[in-house]
């Protein structure tokens, strides 16, 4: 029975993960849960799943909390505790479901300690992909993707050797603004951008889907996770979000993974791999007619895609700069300070201004992350 630490348990991935556990109580043991600041929800989760530890990363909560609401779970505070728990001999699998670069350190600690990491936090791979995969190689950690596209690729890749892969094709829903021109995107509001047609996700990744930055981040994630060349990754728009990606092999055979858009499947697979168990997620209905559409993305309306390709090709500090710039720009867009189309503009401006280092260490990446956020906070269109 894998002993699971779930970081980011109150989020969209976190609650879906707990639903998987709820359906398979006999298979998984939850030993740690963490949230940023939603203490009431975290306490409720503790009552249901009875972990040994609960962590609130926001230290400000410390003063005014009724700790007995968590009994018998031990309530702890601060992000540093996550690193300690990630490396604990009482943990086998870490589910990395914190949003943004805030998830990097705890994910790093889990990989350093040689754990299985069910990786939802794609930002870790965008910021530090080459360092992370090298760390996993030396520690023996297993990184199993939770991102649905990467889970699909990972599943399809089980049928061939890495050297037999010709290319991977990432599918993209196209988000709420598929079909709109660049000019039409200028005036869209946070409310419109938060209304995703196929997936129900946290606010940051929902905005990333609307700008298609999510696909740019996923392209970078795929490159480092599967050790691909830049010319081996294609992007195709597929509005139904049923085919989660394709892998094309050297003999011309193309394998896809299909399922309704429901994150409980890739989460469950990352926990049970190489086994499978009864579905928690919704399943395909083969008795009702349906069709699947595919179309090339509109690179002009969504400049984030070109930025993603450039950043993937450059490597070095570019991923950390791009990711942090995007996080800060999304925050400013949601606060009403930037236009929707400014998000990519700000990312481009900060990438162009940055002092590129081709071979950074982790500390350098954390430093440029901070620099990039500060630049975006000052940026005006
Ligand atoms: P969310 O906003 O719903 O949840 C984020 C979680 O992280 C919450 O539990 C929150 O308390 C915690 N958190 C936020 N900031 C934190 C901080 N500074 N320190 C510690 N904890 C913090 O986000 P989500 O949609 O669940 O996404 C989580 C991650 O999974 C992201 O990296 C996202 O890109 C990735 N992902 C999500 C989906 C999805 O369907 N939601 C799909 C693929 C990948
Ligand atoms: Mg995805």
Automatic annotation (TrEMBL):
GO terms, biological process: isopentenyl diphosphate biosynthetic process, methylerythritol 4-phosphate pathway involved in terpenoid biosynthetic process
Reaction(s) catalysed (UniProt annotation): 2-C-methyl-D-erythritol 4-phosphate + NADP(+) = 1-deoxy-D-xylulose 5-phosphate + NADPH + H(+)
Chain sites annotated for binding Mn(2+): 147, 149, 218
PANTHER family (alphabetical): 1-DEOXY-D-XYLULOSE 5-PHOSPHATE REDUCTOISOMERASE (PTHR30525), 1-DEOXY-D-XYLULOSE 5-PHOSPHATE REDUCTOISOMERASE, CHLOROPLASTIC (PTHR30525:SF0)
InterPro entries reported for this sequence: DXP_reductoisomerase, DXP_reductoisomerase_C, DXP_reductoisomerase_N, DXPR_C, DXPR_C_sf, NAD(P)-bd_dom_sf
Gene that this polypeptide is encoded by: dxr
Top-level lineage group: Bacteria
Residues annotated to bind 1-deoxy-D-xylulose 5-phosphate: 122, 148-149, 173, 196, 209, 214-215, 218
Pfam family, one: DXP_redisom_C
Pathway listed: Isoprenoid biosynthesis; isopentenyl diphosphate biosynthesis via DXP pathway; isopentenyl diphosphate from 1-deoxy-D-xylulose 5-phosphate: step 1/6
Keyword NADP: yes
Function of the protein: Catalyzes the NADPH-dependent rearrangement and reduction of 1-deoxy-D-xylulose-5-phosphate (DXP) to 2-C-methyl-D-erythritol 4-phosphate (MEP).
Identification of the protein by name: 1-deoxy-D-xylulose 5-phosphate reductoisomerase
Residues annotated as signal peptide: none
Residues of the 1-deoxy-D-xylulose 5-phosphate reductoisomerase C-terminal domain: 143-226
